[in-house]
Write a structure and sequence with these properties.
Layout: H1 8-19, H2 21-29, H3 32-38, H4 45-74, H5 85-92, H6 99-104
Length: about 110
């Protein structure tokens, strides 16, 4: 049964795509997004464009919501004078600090 979002020619291309063993191998070895993006250079540009519209909105929404959640958790009404920019940069970074190595160079605090 043909999906209503596909034209007849796109549906025929989808049938061709599912029977192509080379593309099946490519689909199994790449991520889903990489696979569909690689099809834009072939005879499947229409299908690739439709697939791309499904993948792109979620990535940008996720990053935005993740950043907002980190900001909201750091900047509460009790910490409204806090300069949140350096802390937020650390929270959103993909680099994980090596806490043991950082603490190794510090001297323990002596009592007064």
């Amino acid at each position: 049964m043909k999906p209503s979002s596909l034209s007849s020619s796109d549906y025929e291309r989808l049938i061709d795509l599912t029977s192509d063993l080379t593309l099946k191998s490519s689909f199994n070895s790449n991520s889903c997004a990489e696979f569909w993006l690689s099809l834009k250079d072939k005879n499947y540009e229409g299908l690739s464009e439709k697939a791309k519209t499904l993948f792109l909105p979620f990535a940008t929404t996720y990053l935005c919501e993740s950043g907002f959640s980190s900001y909201a958790a750091t900047k509460t009404k009790y910490r409204n004078r806090l300069n949140v920019e350096p802390d937020l940069r650390l929270q959103l970074s993909k680099i994980k600090p090596d806490i043991a190595k950082l603490c190794q160079n510090k001297q323990p605090h002596t009592s007064h």
